[in-house]
Structure formats: structure tokens, C-alpha cells
Amino acid sequence: MKPFIYDYTLEELQTWVKEQGEPAFRAGQIFDWIYVKRVTDFENMTNLSKSLRTKLNDSFQFVTLKEITHMKSSDGTIKFLFGLHDDHAIETVVMKHNYGNSVCVTTQVGCRVGCTFCASTLGGLKRNLTAGEIVAQVVAAQKILDETNERVSSIVIMGTGEPFENYEATMNFLRIMIHEKGLNIGQRHITVSTSGIVPSIYKFAEENTQINLAISIHAPNDKLRSKLMPVNRRFPFEDVMKALKFYQEKTGRRITFEYALIGGVNDQVEHAEELAEVLIRMDMLAHVNLIPVNYVPERDYVRTPKNEIFKFYNALIDRGINATIRREQGHDIAAACGQLRAKHLESNAR
């Protein structure tokens, strides 16, 4: 199968162009056609020679995302289920905020991390996406926004999969997204979320970017986190915190701690107090994002009552920890990770 043109960073494309006997600036022209004009046919790249267009067509293909279905929420959130070339399916979510449009992308088909409250892990991991398959999700979102003269203003890598277990593809995706000749998304408008893949956190600290890092923490200690997130048995809580501290010392960047509140499991005031103690002890520049857990039929968890959420929130604030309660979006369309794909797999299995 021919490689995807979206897989290539500008630097990699410059190398390929020069190997074809063409000047390096042709790569910038190709990037402009792909990401600014958003064409999906090499023949439409009219300022390139016929021979170069033929070489492009012979060497590359565009990622084909076939829309299986989409759902639109009353708040404007749109969730897409896209089919890939090998009949796997992935989800992408476009969210409208008062500050712009955000796209939540998927990095893997399925997930092997195994969080017990998440639909993404149902069925396990099938394969990694290429950088181009991640890029294609943002391009598809941008094409939809083109219809109303809007643009993608931010990206969150919080869809299905663990991006730090697909590290190189994720990093190439990021390099393409932030490039001024590409979609030119500001680095501080991109957030990567990890479940705590310790070696990759150290690598990411050395990348010298301004991209935001979020950690799915969901518990204040080793025992409870291992119960909720089996990945914690590979990378224990304390090791994750040390890696995050290294990242912070290296970059000076604040870290977002994602905490899904599960009724009667991890949502008591003492859990908030313990989390605050850990962040204070580690001297972390932290923001805690509290997330009322989404109901997943295959999981036996319930949502924390609103008054209990505020008790948890206030316990953090009272101890000097910056915290917010995530505003829900797409709740009426099963917009949480993996839910739409899980329904699709279930219907296909019948």
C-alpha cells in the first residue's frame, strides 16, 4: 500500500522532493495545497509540473476517512465515526466553545490501557494509527468548519488510545499541526493526554515544545489507581509523579491532572485531601480538571452527585489547588471516548 501523504512532515517531504530532482521549496507548495487549500487530488496542484504530480500520485495516497455516522449534540458538539481503509472504525469529536473550535482526535484503534470506567478499552487494542490517519481527522474537521468560514483553533489528543504508546506517530502529527505552512495551530492550543507512560513522559520533556500535557490520574494513591487503571501496575503512581516533576522542571509548564469522579469509588473528600497533599508535597504547578464520569453500560459505575462534586472541588480549592469542573459537552450523543465505536462494533457483531 502506498504511504499516506499526510504522514510526512515538511522536512521529510523536502527530502523526498529533492530525491526526485526537484528544488526543496516544492515541498512547501505541496504543504500549501494539502493544508491551506485542502485538496485531496494531486492533479489539482496546478503550480507543480505534470511530472511531479505524476510522481506524487505514484508514490502517495490520501487518507480516506469514510463517514459511517455522525451525531450532533444540542450544544453544537459533533461526534464522527469514521471507517478506515482496513474496515476499522475511529471516533473524532468537534467541540464548539466560546473561544473557538476544538477537535478531539484518536491515536489508536482501541486501547490496551484498560481503564475500568472507559468504553475505549472494550475489545482491546487493534492497531496504532499512522501520523497521517491522525492528521486526517483534523483536516476532516477543518473542511466541515470551512463551510461556515471557521477554523480549528485547538486540538486535544484525548480520543481513543494512549498517544504515548504511539509516540513517534503522535509527535509527527504534532509537528505537522504546528508548522506555519500547515494548519499552523498554536502549540499552546494543543493538549496531549496520557495515562502515565513514564518513559514517554521523560521523552516528551526533552522535545522542547510549548504543547500542553495532561495526565489521567483519577486517584490519589497507588492502590486505588491500580484498581481503576491497570496501567498503574506497569508504571506506579510514585514513578508517574516523579516523571511529571521532571517534565515540569525541564519545561516550566503547568500540568493538567484529569480526575474522573466515580460515585462511591474515588470521589470522597478524603480523596481530594490526599490528592492535594501529593501535589503540595511534590511542589507541582498543577491544575486539576474534575470530570463527572460518563455512564457506560458495560461498566458498573455511577456518576458522583453534583453536591458531592462541589465538596470535592472545594476541598482542593481550600488547600490552594487550582481546580475546575469540566463543562459537559455532547452528553446527549454519547460523546465520551469509545461509546459510539462500541455501539458500532456491537451492531456489527449481531
UniProtKB/TrEMBL annotation:
S-adenosyl-L-methionine binds at residues 161-162, 193, 216-218, 294. GO terms for molecular function: 4 iron, 4 sulfur cluster binding; metal ion binding; rRNA (adenine(2503)-C2-)-methyltransferase activity; rRNA binding; tRNA (adenine(37)-C2)-methyltransferase activity; tRNA binding. It is found in: Cytoplasm. It catalyses: adenosine(37) in tRNA + 2 reduced [2Fe-2S]-[ferredoxin] + 2 S-adenosyl-L-methionine = 2-methyladenosine(37) in tRNA + 5'-deoxyadenosine + L-methionine + 2 oxidized [2Fe-2S]-[ferredoxin] + S-adenosyl-L-homocysteine; adenosine(2503) in 23S rRNA + 2 reduced [2Fe-2S]-[ferredoxin] + 2 S-adenosyl-L-methionine = 2-methyladenosine(2503) in 23S rRNA + 5'-deoxyadenosine + L-methionine + 2 oxidized [2Fe-2S]-[ferredoxin] + S-adenosyl-L-homocysteine. Gene3D superfamilies: 1.10.150.530, Aldolase class I. Binds 1 [4Fe-4S] cluster. The cluster is coordinated with 3 cysteines and an exchangeable S-adenosyl-L-methionine. SUPFAM superfamilies: Radical SAM enzymes. The active site is at 91 (proton acceptor), 337 (s-methylcysteine intermediate). It comes from the Bacteria. GO terms for biological process: rRNA base methylation; tRNA methylation. The keyword Iron applies. [4Fe-4S] cluster binds at residues 111, 115, 118. Residues 97-332 form the Radical SAM core domain. Reaction proceeds by a ping-pong mechanism involving intermediate methylation of a conserved cysteine residue. Specifically methylates position 2 of adenine 2503 in 23S rRNA and position 2 of adenine 37 in tRNAs. This is Probable dual-specificity RNA methyltransferase RlmN. The lineage of its organism: Bacteria, Bacillati, Bacillota, Bacilli, Bacillales. The gene is rlmN.
